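Re: the 234-residue chain
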Amino acid sequence: MDTIIFSDGAARGNPGPGGWGAIVVTADTVMELGGREAHTTNNRMELLAVISALETFPQEHDMTIYTDSAYVVNGITRWVNGWQKNKWKTSKKEDVLNRDLWERLVAATAHKVISWKIVKGHSGVAGNERCDVIATGFADENPPVLYSGSRARYGIDISSITSKNSGKDSVAKTSSKLKSKTKAYSYVSLVDGEIRVHKTWEECKARVNKVSGARFKKSVSPADEEEIIREFRN
C-alpha cells in the first residue's frame, strides 16, 4: 500500500501558542509526530504538520495525504507555481505569507507522487481526530504520548477513510451531526460586511441580534473557523 499521512494544526488565539500533529502510516507501521511553537498561526501549524511528516521520507515515495486545511492543499497544488514565477509575490504584489514554510513544503514534495485529500475537521475521521488531539495537546503544553510501532497494535482505527464504504457524502453527513454537538471553538459573525470572531455565544448574539442581514456560525476548530471566514468573504 502507499504511505498514508494525516495532519492537523492548531493555534490558541491565532496568533498564539500553537501545535501540530501528524500520523504516518505504512503497510506495517504507524508513527505519530507532534510539535509546538510559542507564538504562531493555525496556517503555519497546518503547514508544519505536513512538512514534518513528508520530511521523514527523503527518497522517492508514493503517498496520500489527508488534511482539513484547504489552505495547504490549494497552496501546494494551485498557487505555489504562480508564487514562484512572481518571485514569491501574490497577484496583488504582496509578499506571500509563510514563504519559509512553503519553500520547505516544495522541497519536501520533490520526487514524490502525492494524492492530496481534504477532509472536514471533526467529521469522525479517526486519523484527523487523533491529529487534532496531538496538535491541541502541544498547543496547550500538555502533549499526549506519541505512538510509534506496528500498525496491528495501534489502538485507533485509521482504515475507514480508505475503505469503499467511507464516501464523501457519508463523511459530510457525519460532520454536520457531530458539529451540532461539539463544543464551540469560536463564533464568527458578519454584519455590514465586517467579519468578527467571538469566543462566546453571548458576545456573538449581542452583535447579530435583530440586525437585518447579519450572519453567524459556530466553529469547532481553528480550521473550521478559517473555513467559515473564507465563506463569509465570498
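The first strand starts at residue 3 and ends at 11.
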